[in-house]
Amino acid sequence: MTVQQGAFSEGFVEADGFRIRYMEAGQGTPVIHLHGAGGMRLTQAHTLLSRQYRVVVFEMPGFGASPVNDRTQSVSELGSTMAGAVSALGIERCNVIATSFGARVALWIALQEPERVLALVLEAPAAMRPAGHQPPSGTPEQIARQLYAHPERAASMAPVDPDVQAKQRALVGRLRGPDRDADLEARLRDLAVPTLVLFGTLERVIPPDMGRHYKTLLPNCQLVFIYDAGHEISTDRPEAFADVTADFLERHEAFVINRKDTLISP
Amino acid sequence: MKVSYFETGRYVAPSDMPREWPVPSGNYDAAVGTEALRGMVERVKFVEALGFDWISLSEHHYSPRILTPSPVIAATWLAARTERIKIAMLGPIVPVSNPIRIAEEMAMLDTLAPGRIVIGLLRGTTNEYLSYDLNPTEARERTDEGMDLILKAWTEPQPFGWQGRHFQYRTVSIWPRLQDPPPPTYALGTSAEAGEFAARHHIGLGVSYGTFEIMARATSYYRERCAEYGWQPGPEDIIYRANMILGETDEEAEATLLRRDRQGAFPVRPSLRDALLEADIKRNVAGERRAQPVGGVLPISFCGGPDRIVEQIRQCREEVGAGILDLSLQDPGTGDTDAMLRALELFGRKVLPRIREI
Q: Could you tell me if B107 and B250 are in contact, meaning their C-beta atoms sit under 8 angstroms apart?
């Protein structure tokens, strides 16, 4: 069953007994996206990436309009469910983009089935957090100022229903785990999947200094700062996000080699 | 109050030199240029002996008025030939430069002369955008982003990439790094953007060539923004670069002021100046739009005999809040180096001992 929404079509897929919603657009190598604690939202970055890739944006079970998820016991289990959802779409190998809370889920997918993950892009990942880290809080305006460098660019997005927010917060609170997960981090040392970690220079939720821990732990990791972006990089600077992400997905570590033409006239 | 001497590499231009910027390179006299640049050492040793705290250098191009297109080369030369005085680069022009190069050169110089360098990051005067072919409408944004990138290159311990608006790097990991603690660093300018940047990054602010009242608007804005970011800058976080005419008496100083050229030394021609000003639309003082003087004569902020100058410096401290005065004694670009040295000597003898407690 699909419903059109812009260029993206809505669909549902079954995995581990969950009925999982997704939005899909584009053709080519699959790119799946796992959202952050605030739930699934389409951004211009998805549209830009869908020009080159088959983009599948999942809504993880317990988020959005889906029923309360009190079955999933851990992020690794959630990773296993989401890998099942990918399989159910007939996708064997894919790129994985994950945002904030979604980063730990994505890392677990890569650890459980490394041969299926072509490359990982972690947007403002919350998989490693400073001790005592608190998620954004306050009025919607205060939260927006913590999430975005340019809240006005998020203004067109529909506000999330308070009941949905409460449901999602409870689920994230249950699954977010310790600020530093020693077991996960020990495993990351052997994860060969090419990984790109992105942090905005105006990040106010997770200190962007955390980026260096990914760079140190992961054997095949690139760290890139997105200038003038906050936590929600793909909303603050969708073109920059899509540009660096697409380049990395295409070339992996060779994306450090400049191939921009500077010839003015022959 | 600390005091800095602004060294310009004093090229003595003959009176028949073309007066328009850019000044034809063919008019350059190698012997005069060599004396001008090599003479920097003697002048800097002179002010070091007088008790000056810093000397400063700036980046300007295509004219004999200020002969230091590369302040970092001048700073390196001077650091190797002097003992104590701090050398402030005020500064490399960020929007026309490779920010990583600036970060590396500053770190290298800081390593060669630990504790002796001061770094100012500058947007630059509008005509300098012609020198390296920069679109003036992009200068503001390139400066802000370039400064951000320089600070990141200095502090991030892991190799990183930078996806900016105007700069893109995929691999940055500079060697050598800055000393610990790092050298004093300033954003230079009166704009809201400079004040905001300096406040956000806990660095100093340098302002120049305006009345106390206008400079105070910029420094007040900076202090307000610092308060927003939860810190309070001290006097040494604010540099004020200004011209001073110092005489033995007030009357002598005023007579010098009257003899002063009404014309800048090597101005851009008026039609080009106007086109430049029209293109460089983002100039402001603390957010209020204000065009930069281009090619005009820069104001004299201090004028008088020693007593009056001390009072003016006290007033400047109160109004502008600056703890570091970066001075051109008499006029830069006039070529009268002897008059400048006499004024510096007088300043060291009659003024400097009386402003330390201000």
A: no
